[in-house]
# Entry
Amino acid sequence: MPMPRNRSLLAALAPLLVIIAGMACRIPWPGQPVGPAPQPPSSSSTPAVPAAISRLVVVGPRPLSCPAGMCLQIYDPASGEYWADQPGIRGLSYQPGFVWQVLVEQAGSPSPAAWTVTQVVAQEVAAGEVAVTSPHVGEAFRAGEAVRGKVSAAPSDRQLVYRVYDAGGTLIGQGPIAVTPADAGSGSFESVIQFAEYEGPGRIEILDLYSSAGFVGRSASVDLYLGMTVPPESRPSAQVLESRSIHIDSPARYSVAPPTFEVRGRVSLSPFENTLGYHVFGADGRLLNAGSLMVQAELGQPGTFASPIAAPASYRGPVRLLIFEGSAADGLILASATLDLFVDGGSLP
# Structure
């Protein structure tokens, strides 16, 4: 018996209707939630892009422990991390006296030996030699008077900083000093110095600070009778000042030390009662600690010293150590030496 015409048509269209119905199940109607788009399969062979981490790289001499007498000292002020005696970082050439802020790839290792410099963010150089031409040691100096001097190489930002200290090491004044560039990259400065009311022996320091970290590059100082119109009769003679000097032999500049470390050095002449004083200043120039140390010397002869120096146990960051001989007559500093280094909160890196 022949199939009705409409049934024959339905039978012929059945496969097509099945396909259309399947497509309808995959096409969302209004209000139907849409699932996430299919993602390509992950590939374990695609390497992860190393994170570029900003580091501050400090260069300082370490003649006793480093090849060719030089090594990198690396300090990251953001995290407070230190690495001492590093032979180098790939992509960074050694240049004495420079400080770099760089981006590095760590290559999965915290050791600088595995790092590679990807970008030099900033490169700073100390302002060469800084010299104060006036006033001179032992003169009287009042607030509002000017300090003059010169630098062999002008700092990149054309600015120095002055700090004024009383005899006890208390910071009583500070401010910026503009440097005027001159020929061959050198420069000069003349700046009014302000400080709190004080009368007595003190010191003015002229500093080239690395702006990215706050520690000292180059510096000069002059010891004066602050707040006075004329120096006292006890003012030391030029012969006394020229005959005395202090040298710090260790630790090395920009090295990393625990809060209590040993300092070694020598003097050209034995100080009064074979005693020197010391001040430890933080990155902001404020006094952290003060004390004294003994010199091994015969009367009127050269001598040596080796003594522990203490900073606060919890302190981490740049410090500036001043070792000095004070006049027994009035406390004016007759000779001094400074050292800039880092204190690492109680442990070596």
